[in-house]
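Annotators were shown the component list below and the corresponding predicted structure, then asked to write short factual statements about the assembly.
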Amino acid sequence: MLIIQNLTKIYENGFVALKNINLEIPDGQFVSIIGLSGSGKSTLLRCINRLIDPTAGRILWNGMDITAVSDDELRQIRRRIGMIFQQFNLVKRSSVMTNVLAGRLGYLNPLYSLVNYFPKSEQDRALAALERVGIAEKAYIRASSLSGGQQQRVGIARTLMQEPEMILADEPVASLDPATSHSVMKYLQLLNKEDGLTVLCSLHFLSLARAYADRVIALKDGVLEFDGLPGEIDNDRFKQIYGEDAVEVEIS
Amino acid sequence: MTQTTDPSPSRRALNRLFFVLAAAVVLVIFAYGWTVTDIDFTVTQQPQRQENVTNALQELLSPNVFTQDYTIQNTTTSFLVTCTDDFSAPATQPNTSAPYIAVEPACGDSSDLVTVRGYNFPPNALARINWIATDGERRIRQVVGVEADNFVTKPDGTFSVQIEVPRIRGTSGETHTIEAQGRFPNGAPHFSETTGVVMERMIETIFLALIATTISILPSAILSFLAAHNLMRSVRIPLGNLLVGFTLLPVGYFFGATLLGALGSFVLNLSSGGIAAPAAGMIVVFGAVASTSRLGSAPQIAPRTPLRSIAMTLVVSVAGVIVIAFVAGLALAIDRLGGDGIVGDITRFIGSLGEIIQLVLVPLCGIVGAVAAASIGGMLTTPLLRQISVSVSHILGAVLGVLGGAILLGMVASIGMSAAWMGLLVPAVVASLSSPLLPQLYSQFTGVGLHPTGSQRVVLTALSWIGGAIGFSATFVLMDVSRAMVEGVLPGREVIVSFAGVEVYAYVAKAMLIGAVVAGIMGGLQGTRANFGIGGVLYSITRTLLNALRSIEPLIMGLVFVIWVGIGPFAGVLALTLHSIASLGKLYSEQIETIDSGPIEALQSTGANRLQTIVYAVVPQIIPSYIAFTMYRWDINVRMSTIIGFVGGGGIGFLLQQQINLLRYRDAGVAVLAIAIVVSILDYASAAIRERYV
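Structure shown to annotators:
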C-alpha cells in the first residue's frame, strides 16, 4: 500500500510543481498518471523514490515513511522500487549485460561491484531478465546499437534485477513509435498481472491509459484533477484536464 | 512577444554612434599595444642585422646531422731551384689509379710561377699545395687566384693550379719537394656526434613528457570528480554530522599516525626483511581480505547495524594499511635484489615506489585514521542527531561549531604562517564562514522562507557579501595581516600553550579563537539538522586550486623545482606533472559536466550507492574523452619539455640553450630539427588517436 499525504513540492526557483496531493494506491494496481507537460507527473513519480526531495507531506510505503528515512534506509527502499524512464537512461557505451547487472548494485557488496565483478548467480539472473523481455541474444552488444524499443526493454530488465514490488514508469513510451509503445506497455502489463507488481505509469496518450490502466490519475498544474476509472473520462473531463482547445488523439 | 520592426531613426543613429566609439576604442588599444611592444620595422632593414640573421638562419638550416670521415693523402714531386742546363724533368707515372702530381716546369727561380697538375684526386674535394725545402719545413703555397690555403679539385678529380716558387735564401741548386695534400673520404657518410647527443636528449625529453603525463592521470582524475559541478552540487550532509566528523579528524589523525603508523612500519620492516617474512605477511593479508569480504558479501536485506559498519570500517582501515605497508616492504626487498641493465632499471623503479610509500606511510596512516574516525563518529551520532529536539540541536550546533571552527582555523593559520601573503588565507576562510551569518539572521527575524522572492534574494545576497566583508576585514585587522604583507615578515612564533609535545603559537591560538566564535555562532543559528552543501564547498576549493595552479606556467614551476631538486629532468618532470594535474583536472571535470545525467538518475533509483553510481553511470561515459585529453596533454607536454630545459629542467631544451649560447647554430639546427620531427609525429599521432575516441 502506497499512501501519499499532503505532498507538496516547490522547486528552488519558486515553481510549485505539486500542491497538496493525497493518494492511496493499493498493492497490485496499474495506475496511469496523465496530464499536460509540466503538470507535475514526473515530479510526483520522483518524489516517491526521492530522486526529488519533497518540500512537505509524507509518503508511506508498507508502513515506512519514505520522506523521513536515512540515506541507508532509503537505498534499501529504492531497491524495491523499479523505475523506467522516457529516455531509457541506459549507459550507451556499456554492454546490455552491464546495464542490466547495474540494476542489482544495491544488493551487491560494493567492494566487488566496484571492480566489475558479478557472481555467476547474478549473471544468470540478468540473462533470465533479458530472456523475459525477449532480447537475451543482445546481451553482449553495446546498448547504443539497440533500437528505442529494445533499449526500453533493457530498462525493464534492469528494473527486474531489483526484484521490485513497485514500478514507477516516467513516460516509458513517449520516445517510441505506436507499435513499439504497445509492446513496451504489454511488458509492463505482464509484470503487473503475473508478478503482481504495483505500476505507476505516466502517459501522454489517454488511449494508452484506457487500454492498460486499472485507474487513472490526472494532474493539472500540480493539483489532483481527477482520480477514477479510465472509462469515466468523457469529453468534458478530458477538456477539464487538457484544456479547452485539446482534441483527443488515438494511438493505434 | 512584439513583432520585430525596423529600429527607429534615433535608435539607428545611436547604434552608429556606438559603432564609431567602439572603433575608436579599438584603435586606441591597438596603437598603445603597438608602442608597448616596441614594433620597429627599421631595425629589420639594418644591413648588419640582416647579415647576422642570414648567417644564423643559414647555419640553423644546415644542421650537421651527417658527417664524413676523411684521410689526408700526400703526393709529392721534386723541384730543382734554379734550372741547370743538364736538368731533365723527372718522369711522371700516368694512367695509374693512385693520385699523382706533376709540376711544370720542374725547375725555376724564386717568384717564378709554376703549374702543378694533379690526377686521380677525389672530385670536388679540398686539396692544398705545400712546399718542402731541405729543412723539412712545410710551407703552404696559396694557389694563384684563390684567397685561401685550400682549393677545390675539378669534377673529374684532376686539378691544375699555379703557384709561386717561394723565396728562400740560399737554396739555389737544391732539390725541393712539392707536396699535394688531398682530402679523401673514408667510408660512407654517417650520423654526426651532435646527432647522437641530440637523440639521447630527445629520448629523455619524450620520456620526461610521458612520465609527467602518466603520473598526472590518477590525481587529476580524482580531482576532476571533485571539480565537477553536476556531481558535487547535490552532495549535502546534515551540519551536525559534518561537524562531528570534522571535530574527530585531528583525533583520528593522531591515533592513525601513532597506532596504524606503528603497525604499518612493523609490517613494512617485516616484508622488506626477507622471503620468509613476506610469506607470513601474505597470509595475514589474505586473512584480512577474506574477513573483510565475508563481512560485506552477505546480501544486505536488512539495514546495516552501526556496530557492523564500525567493525567493517576498522577492519578495512587496518587491512588497507597492512596491504600498503606490505607492498611497500616487498618493493624495498625487490630493490635490494639489484641487477644489471633493464632488470636493474626495473628493480630500482619498484624500489623507489616503495621508498615513496615508506616516506608517506605515517601521514597516510594518519589520514586513514582521520577518515575512519570521522565516519565512525558519523555512524554513531547520526541516529542521536536525528532524535534530539530543536533547541538541543541548536545548542549542540553551537558547541560543535566552536570545536570545528577552532580546528579549521588552527589548520588554516598553520598554513598561513608559512609566508606573509599566505596570511590572507585566515581572513578569507573567516569571510566564507561569516558570510551566511547576516542572511541567516535576516531570514529568522523577517520570516523569509525557503523560497525567497526576487527582491528578498537581492537582500540576502547583499547581506552575505556584507557579512563576508566584515568577517574578512575584522580578521585582517585582528591578525595584523597588513604588516606581514607590507614588510614581508612572518607572524611571530611565541608559544603560549604546550602539551604532549604540541606547541600552540599565539598567532594560531588567536585564529582558533576567531574561528571558534564565528563558527560557534553559525552552528548555533543553523542547528545540527541544517543541510550543509559540503559538495559545493569542495567543488569551489578544488576549482580555485586548479585554476590557480593552471595559471602558473610550467617554466615558472620549473624554476622553483630546479631550486628544490637541482638542474635535470627530475625538476622538469615535477613541473610538468603539477601543471598537467591542474590542466587535466579542469579538462576532465568539464567532460564530467557534459555527461548524460539519465544513467546517474537510473542507478540512484536502483539503490546503488554513490560510488557505484559513479563507477557504472559516470565512468563509462567519460573514458573516451579522458583518453583523448590525456593524449592531447602528452602532446602538449612533449612541446613543453622541449623548452623546459631552458630553465634547467632537463631534456633537449638544455642542450639547445647551450648550443645557442655557444653560437653553434649548426648543432642547434639539429636539435630544432629533432624537435620539429618529434612534435609533428606526436601531433599527428595524438590527433589520430583522439579522432578514434571522440
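Statements collected:
1. The two ends of chain A are 33 Å apart (CA to CA).
2. Chain A touches chain B through 47 residues (CB under 8 Å).
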